[in-house]
């Protein structure tokens, strides 16, 4: 029976070898899950008979994340499950003396506890960073039971307390087992690599690189090991190396500092040239690899963002955690790559990763694509008074930095977003986060996204630079007020470095309106055309002001939010430039592609406005070409010069089907079909 049970569970078998080199083995398969609280599940004699067989990544909110409130019942908000879920898995292994065994969780929300063979091996609070539990002392030869309890209930001492997004519960990222020798690069450095590569100085002739390597001796004896660091170029050639002998007493943690020089460095220059080196660190039998991009980041109150000392315009979108309807945030690497490619195709130079740490794949992709990032801890809207909340926020900042320090794409660390009240006082928390960030990484600036209090409120004064969430023309005011506000603030505080961290408008691809009227954001009607007009006007205001260090659209993709009850369906924030399923790019997406991308393009707006009620309409085309030609039902309507990435024609539709085609250059072409159906009777 025992043999049959093993076959049914398809247990992972790890064959022990004398080598103590680091290995990382996926544990994504063969889990059992139940969405309930069953504390006895950690016991070996518990029978998980009614549990569901699942594969990681997995969230227990995949099915209810898009359930909004029922307005007929007076429900202003949706409700999704927030509570515990339990996971179990068998592991067959023969532990080897002198070797450590560590579970790595790449993300689990919101509070995680784990047991091996009924013995507690770790507790973690926070839903978005990776974390590790050393399970060496809990393992035995043969079968081992891993049990994990994950709970996404709101916890007073754990950020985020609230926000315009869902907290997806479960083991929604991957889990693995790391094995390495007793003397190793520290695995317990806040979930990070234990290696910190810092560019100290750059010239055309050389780059001075500092390496800080955290070692740990988990054995009962003193140890002496060689620590070798090599920097390899993109062709795999060693361009710099260092070697240090390190002596560690039993149980000691020891940092090792090394200096390396790269001759004639090839700089990481964003989208222009995202050149990456690779760093290989060998500490005794252990081995760690991290990326290195040689570059500098500075921000000036008049010139804005500077990359390698040169002005580099930062524009792009906010991106919530990658997700898909029916899967929540339990997405694959391929789906993350798709998100990043969509943004890359639009031409972004940067992304703001809102409002929490994202999967490592996002940072890896950004390194290779040359997309700069701001990445932040999930301090959103509110805090809890007291040391417990502050300590947790600080630990989440430590995790964010330790895990992402070596990514050249990471330009700024974010302290938080939209603390809406000074009661309880959030200033001590923000001050502690600022102190922590600067102590761990003095090379990168910090930023805070401010809203809903005075522009010069003390909350906005902790970070190195500030960004503002401003929705002129959506939540009141007019499109032109964006520029007026920015100019007034710059005049009042000429040395303040500030940007725009959010601006945007909602849109449903099901809502189409020629010459749209002003929209009520909280109402049902969110026409796609109004979103396009909003972005046309706001981008014109922003691009004319080079002193702004950044401009980030809210938001890249529509995403679930239980608090929303507006637009064409509840529980969705529809301000995305792309729909939640990633199948439809809204007109506003193409407006930015025309402005930002080097890829030649032409796009006829309103392709989904297929039921025309007005005969005489304006055909509008977005393009980054100098000239566009238009035809209606096969008849040429002539060419128009493209002015500010827009060309327009006045056209008269015939009854029934009308085919509109746009041409530019030799090969660019777009086509839409509009059906003229006459005015609505009685209007």
Automatic annotation (TrEMBL):
Pfam families: DUF4982, Glyco_hydro_2, Glyco_hydro_2_C, Glyco_hydro_2_N. The keyword Calcium does not apply. Transmembrane segments: none annotated. Residues 195-295 form the Glycoside hydrolase family 2 immunoglobulin-like beta-sandwich domain. Residues 81-180 form the Glycosyl hydrolases family 2 sugar binding domain. Residues 620-663 form the DUF4982 domain. GO terms for molecular function: hydrolase activity, hydrolyzing O-glycosyl compounds. Residues 302-588 form the Glycoside hydrolase family 2 catalytic domain. Residues 1-21 form the signal peptide. Keywords: Glycosidase, Hydrolase, Signal. GO terms for biological process: carbohydrate metabolic process. Belongs to the glycosyl hydrolase 2 family. This is Beta-galactosidase. It comes from Asticcacaulis taihuensis. The lineage of its organism: Bacteria, Pseudomonadati, Pseudomonadota, Alphaproteobacteria, Caulobacterales.
